[in-house]
Amino acid sequence: MGKYKNLCPRIHCSRDCQNSPRVRAIFRCENTRCGLWGGSLVYTLYNELGLKNVHGFDASKSGIELAKKSFPELARNFFIHNAYESKLPSNVPHKYDLIISMEVIEHLYTPKTYLTNLTLWLEDNGHLILTTPYHGYLKNVLIALMNKFDKHFNPLWEGGHIKFFSKRTITKLLNQTGFKLMRLIGCGRIPFIWKTMIILTRK
Length: 203
Prior knowledge:
This protein is of the alpha/beta class.
């Protein structure tokens, strides 16, 4: 894995690259509810891990405004950007070593377009860390038996989840778009009823 180690579930960077301007990371979240988590992950990557070329993207104007307000010293590192737009803003690097995409893909009508765009933004052998809610046979059966279908697949949630991935389907989609799966971890709750998946891939 070269300059990175223990990328999943937490991100660490070896000492020889922490202050290197060559290491570039990008974090994006299209979920308007989270608004880049107020910019907290970008702040952690920048200040605690020393990745100085880190940028946060969100389709939500309010999310970006919240991030800029929460971390004014990093205001220039946050940008409004649509997941389907293949070109990044002109004032950021067009190639990154690491992309972190958290709870984005399940909100998209055409996730293949999004992943194809990510390959355009990644350096060769660059890494993608992707998270998305987990679905599988046992969890799906329990949802039905407990009469939680309407709550879990809530059609009344404006801007909510429209794609529901299992290990098999997310792996297939990643392979189709040029990513090599390195590691997949289920987290939250007990095994096979996981809340989400953390996926490490390489271009």
